[in-house]
User: Fold this.
Amino acid sequence: MELGLRLAHLYPKQMNLYGDRGNILCLRRRCAARGIELAVDELEIGEPLDATAYDLVFIGGAQDREQRRVAVDLLTAKGDALRQAVAGGVVVLAVCGGYQLLGRYYRPAEGEDLPGLGIFDAWTEHPGPTAKRFIGNVVVRWQGATLVGFENHGGRTFLGPAARPLARVIAGYGNNGRDGTEGVVQANAFGTYLHGSLLPKNPRFADHLIALALARKYGDGGLPPLDDALEEQAHAEAVRLAVRKPIFV
Amino acid sequence: MTKTVTGVRTAAAVGAAKLAATFSRRLGLGGGTALPGLMAEAVAPGLASRLVGELGHGCLLVTGTNGKTTTARLVRNIARTAGFWPVHNGAGSNMMRGITAALSEATNAQGRIPQSERRLGVFEVDEATLPEAAEALAPRVIAFTNLFRDQLDRYGEVDSVAALWREALGSLPPAVAVVLNADDPGVAGLADACRGPIVFYGVADTACAVGGLEHAADARWCPTCGQEYVYSAVFYGHVGHWACPACGRSRPTAQVEAVRVEQPAAGPLGVMATTPVGRLELSLPLIGVYNVYNALAAAATAVALGVEAAIIQGGVASFTAAFGRQERFEVRGRDVQTILAKNPAGLNQVLRALVAEPEPKNLLFLLNDDIADGRDVSWIWDVDFEMLAGHTGLLLASGRRAADMALRLKYAGLDPDPVLECNVERALARALTLTRAGGTLYVVPTYTAMLQVRRVLARWGHRPQFWEET
Assistant:
């Protein structure tokens, strides 16, 4: 049987601040290596999202200015479809700014609150323009293994009772620098502050997302292993850098 | 009395600076470009403002994400040709301490700057340092190269850099001339904040345009109305002929404009430009359209200073590549070319220049993550390495984040298993061994990796140390 998955990349022009495109390159390559064709549709502001057309959805991070425009479009053009997709088990990965906008609201350093989609039971508040940004290498514990990345965010995210954290912070700040949580999981939707890009250096997490999407579509999420020696080396070096060195801001 | 105390203190400060420079070099700590400035500022705060006041022709500043070192160096050469005696922070130390060090270095034993009537300060300034430098140094001209994402971990977002610049420009005296890139909407838009004369520069020759916007394009939206810009030509990144379809904001007319650009594979770059002081024919020993912009920025700065066309042409002709930016040397019978690349827009330009010639290239990429490089290496995923497909011979990844770089090359589909060697000296040795005699090795380092490459080559007997350069 010919396997195929379809991914909606939301706002690639606006939400592309930290090499987020690497996540798409990674998914496409890891699918191709297993004979799975990954079709990617780029959906910009004003373009509707078809809730039933996709197996995966990705949204990256942006500057505050772009984030404001995207927040409006999410609420008006794509929000209902995205909620419906998440309810139907579609795999969603939201990084940094995208993660914030899928929560209940984002309170920026200055100006009015941005209402979020409320897909995640989470909210984000920026303590103000003089507050310390959370910048540096991050290592978190996820499913008995580690995830690595780089974080750079002013907003502090807090999780409500319906949300589970994606991971626990080993080094770095994570959601808010206080409670040791990083990211969020709700159904098959994942929010995280880790970029770097996230997926290339975390091949197990990349495969986890692909497997969830395959299982939902075909009932079987089994994936043959790939030669990930280089990926694991980059991962191990990132762990070493983050844990050995204090993180200065 | 106060005056004497100030004088003594200035002399002490520049003395401390010179001593620190000597020690820093003797101890092999570096080029002696930052520590002396720190020492001098500690002994006599405000030293830079006082010394710059002694420069008979004042000073000018060059800032922007990419190209400021090359542009400032071109301006320095033009200034020299015009008969000025420039004070210049040539080693790329572009914060206030680097400028203070350059000024201290120019003083005599009495703490004064000799031949002050011929003196002109030509200072490259870090983007975030511009407001402080503009206030402390009271420049005559400020030139902006471009605005791209660069070290988001250090500067914050691109928008905050632009906001800093606007604020600095708004508080300048109206006599200060501002030189702006007409083709970069993020820089051209600074005109709104300017109170004095503006010289725009840009490229008219659409023959060197590329297909479309790259992933590294940053200024895509009109700040006035939020519409996406429409481009009739893109030269690199988001630099090109832009217009907002909604409010009519568009590329301003460039007073200094390249009407013809020639990029022969074997170099040099040829630029024919029109200016208010006449026609220029420039020849540069560099590659890439981004260097056309550097030459235009320097020419426009010279125009703002009142320099005539023949002098500008002569000054540019006397140019040799800035420290570490693009250098060429022979090592063990191989031609080694180093090209600094430190952000997506810059590296895309380097790659574009490399694939312009058909034969496969041997490439050594060095990726470090020190503060001067940017701690966050995710920017390499915004670079279009995919364009190298079919153009590579040997691929090596080195530097502290060698594995990240190798991974990027793998996911670009270039080589499933690039040669990976974290140690820079061993990587260079290996790359040379794998390059056939008489062949060319292209070395593409980030900033601190470039310093390491130079140190290794110096150890092998191939480079003058950078503070010895003229």
